[in-house]
Design brief:
The complex is a heterodimer of chains A (about 240) and B (about 325). Chain A is of the alpha/beta class and about 240 residues long. Chain A has eight helices and 15 strands. Chain A has a five-stranded parallel beta sheet with strand order 2-1-3-4-5, with helices on both faces. In chain A, β9 and β10 form a beta hairpin. The termini of chain A are far apart. Chain B has about 325 residues and is an alpha+beta fold. In chain B, α3 crosses α5. The longest helix of chain B has about 55 residues. Classes of the chains: A alpha/beta (about 240), B alpha+beta (about 325). At the A-B interface, α1 and β7 of A face α6, α8 and α9 of B.
Chain lengths: ~240, ~325
């Protein structure tokens, strides 16, 4: 038995997937969801083998939903998104179906899944959210205990490396996200954020003071009261962004 | 120098003549400077030729007298030269006037040319922006989100509900036809605009019918008012998009058309979540509309966006006492 969940915010779009799936006897559709939140819940509950996933959906995108899963099921994307964004991840998902798609194209995608059998870990290109042209990408979606938290880039005060994770500091406190510093260095606006240290990225409007710590070494004071070390290579970067 | 020598041949010493010429050259430069400043701020209209003439006249008389008194002061002890100067003073006045007038004409010509250039530049800019807006509009409607999703809906309906599929095909065709209509150089009536909006919403409702609701409030007396094309629909599309993707649950879009004094007032609101971290600031579509309104009416206060806690609203004012036959 293959457990399947369909996640798409347009009812007609889910109906055609159901219609096409009818020829696969071994498939059981356990849930049809219309947004990422419902999708997350259903995935947790049913632990599906395969999900059909739309990209642009209410509140969080399909990509953002997947990022929140620790052990994501196999994914076939069904979306009208243009190929530009699609190319970035076509090696990672089982397949992507560009709407509208034919039954034979759909069956090809299913064959791919069946051949690969078993679950398959979906990996994502770290730059994917930059490529989402129309989707809101100026934000981070993460899990905060049981809630899902959406943090706009504008609310970030600073970032701190924490092994494979990054601590995100905002007015509301500290949040954990499983991405690298390199990733954030790439996606954040370089006019607003500076990597002042191997372990720190700071928003320049948060800075209140640059203090000499010892000879040739400096520290930053932030509005929130936090103190951040500046590395030797970070100091000239900071100076050039601040224009001093 | 040449002039000084010329004067010298009439009798006075070379030094005296050179001094005289230098003095008047200086005065003329002063006058040119003065005129230039006047014409920088004042461009005479076609029928004000007398006013235009009066400037150089006044200026040249001023120079003439200034020159005359200066000469009388400087050459106090050269009686013969003073007499010579007096003899030719009207010739001198005339020459000064001619020179000043010539320069004034040059300035006038230059400023006229500049105005012409500015007007043409503005017209070109408007042309370009209209084209940009049209292109943007086309891209919007002809690209994945709208067209392909609509086609996908049709594909989904075609087997199970063929009648609805055909209905959708017809709606989509009519909408696309209206979008790419050729004569988009003119204003259309509120009624026509609303028909167009309803067509668009009809299609979106097939896709999102379970969530999307639109409430129209259209004042009877403004149904015949007119507005430029391609202004309201992109805003509607924005509202639908941000409503549908910004919140879970149902989306109510409110559209209002009203008359306010000599304006047609339009507002469109959609629910949104201020905490969702949607990109702040105006979208490309909104900016395009703001710029187009500025170019159409030369005003910056006709387009407003507001976000309250859970509602995003755009407001648009279209001046009605405006030449509507001319699209730009």
């Amino acid at each position: 038995m293959i457990k399947v969940i369909i996640i798409d915010d347009e009812p007609l779009a889910t109906e055609i997937v159901i219609e096409y799936l009818a020829v696969f006897d071994q498939v059981h559709i356990l849930a049809v969801c219309h947004d990422g939140f419902a999708g997350l819940k259903a995935i947790k509950e049913y632990e599906p083998d395969l999900i059909f996933l739309d990209v642009q959906m209410p509140k969080i995108t399909g990509f953002e939903m997947l990022e929140l899963l620790e052990n994501p099921p196999a994914v076939i994307f069904t979306t009208a998104y243009d190929e530009y964004a699609m190319k970035a991840f076509d090696t990672h998902a089982i397949d992507y179906l560009l709407k509208p798609f034919s039954q034979s194209r759909f069956e090809k995608a299913m064959e791919k899944f069946l051949k690969n059998g078993e679950r398959q870990i979906v990996e994502f290109d770290q730059n994917i959210s930059k490529l989402e042209l129309n989707g809101p990408s100026e934000r981070i979606v993460l899990k905060d205990k049981h809630d899902i938290k959406i943090i706009p880039f504008s609310e970030i005060q600073f970032l701190e490396a924490n092994d494979d994770y990054v601590n995100i500091y905002t007015m509301e406190g500290k949040f954990l996200k499983n991405k690298t510093m390199k990733f954030f260095e790439n996606v954040l606006d370089t006019k607003m954020f500076v990597r002042v240290h191997r372990s720190y990225i700071v928003k320049i409007t948060e800075i209140t003071k640059i203090e000499t710590y010892e000879k040739d070494s400096y520290i930053l004071k932030l509005k929130s009261g936090a103190t951040i070390p500046i590395s030797k290579s970070g100091y000239p970067k900071l100076k050039s962004v601040l224009g001093v | 120098m040449g002039v000084a020598y010329l004067v010298h041949t009439f009798g006075p010493g070379l030094g005296t003549a050179a001094l005289d010429v230098a003095l008047h050259t200086f005065l003329l430069i002063l006058a040119y400077f003065f005129l230039e400043n006047i014409f920088r701020y004042y461009t005479p209209q076609d029928r004000q030729f007398l006013i235009f003439l009066s400037f150089p006249l006044v200026v040249s008389i001023m120079i003439f007298y200034l020159g005359k008194y200066s000469i009388e002061l400087i050459f106090l002890h050269q009686q013969s030269y003073l007499e010579f100067v007096k003899e030719i003073q009207f010739v001198r006045l005339f020459v000064i006037f001619l020179m000043v007038l010539g320069y004034a004409l040059l300035l006038l010509f230059h400023s006229k040319l500049e105005t012409q250039l500015k007007i043409r530049e503005r017209a070109e800019q408007i042309d370009r922006l209209v084209k940009e807006a049209e292109l943007f509009q086309l891209r919007q409607q002809l690209q994945p989100h709208f067209l392909f999703n609509s086609l996908n809906s049709i594909s989904s309906l075609v087997k199970r509900k063929p009648d609805e599929a055909r209905e959708m095909v017809l709606q989509l065709s009519e909408f696309l036809r209206k979008t790419i209509r050729k004569e988009n150089q003119k204003w259309i009536s509120v009624l026509e605009e609303i028909e167009y909006l309803q067509l668009f919403i009809g299609i979106e409702k097939v896709r999102f019918g379970h969530r999307l609701e639109v409430e129209y409030q259209i004042a009877e007396e403004c149904k015949s008012l007119r507005l430029p094309q391609l202004l309201v629909q992109p805003l509607m599309e924005n509202a639908v998009k941000h409503g549908l993707y910004g919140v879970l649950g149902d989306v109510l879009i409110k559209v209002r058309f009203e008359c306010q004094d000599e304006y047609l007032f339009i507002s469109i609101s959609n629910p949104f979540d201020s905490m969702a971290g949607q990109a702040s600031g105006e979208s490309f579509g909104q900016q395009a509309i703001r710029r187009r309104l500025f170019l159409l009416f030369g005003r910056n206060d006709l387009f407003k966006t507001q976000s309250h806690k859970e509602e995003f609203k755009v407001e648009l004012k279209i001046p009605q006492n405006y030449d509507q036959s001319y699209y730009h």
